[in-house]
Amino acid sequence: MWKKVLWSDETKIELFGNNAKRYVWRKSNTDHHPEHTIPTVKHGGGSIMVWACFSSAGTGKMVKIDGKMDGAKYRTILEENLMESAKDLRLGRRFVFQQDNDPKHKAKSTMECFKNKHIQVLEWPSQSPDLNPIENLWKELKTAVHKCSPSNLTELELFCKEEWEKMSVSRCAKLIETYPKRLTAVIAAKGGATKY
Predict the structure, then answer these.
(1) I want to staple 49 with a disulfide (CB 3.0 to 4.6 A). Which of 53, 65, 123, 141 is the partner?
(2) How far apart are CA 111 and CA 94, in angstroms?
(3) What positions does the domain Tc1-like transposase DDE occupy (predicted)?
């Protein structure tokens, strides 16, 4: 059953990551010896928001969200990427789409789109941050992207898409294979934290 699910979510990806410090070497004014340079941490640099999906068969499409996400923008993303991802991943016509309970996802017109296209949407519990296996992939994606050292937002977007496509099918399959175990752990922890 879980192999038939197309998992999705949005995430914010920082240009310089939370813990990646960027040092800019500045010559100190008093001295002209190159060893007397002062590291200054360059903060900021901005971030991008992306939407992506995956199944046990691998990663689907990833798109950068321009500007603020609203219901209409979300529907456009789905129209342009959902069925195509399901087709690319050979999920067949009877796949199930997973999205969390963000109001933009649950808007009446969005839910109507699903109904008209006969797309089954997975019932999703409201307080369930660690139930979406895509979270594990986001973590790996961010690590991989920061290793590429993007220097601007264009590179950041490019590396995100490249690294997302590079995610191994076996990694995706493994996440879904262990999914029932994850659910059992969450139920046992009565919704508390788990090792997943």
Answers:
(1) 65
(2) 17
(3) 5-155
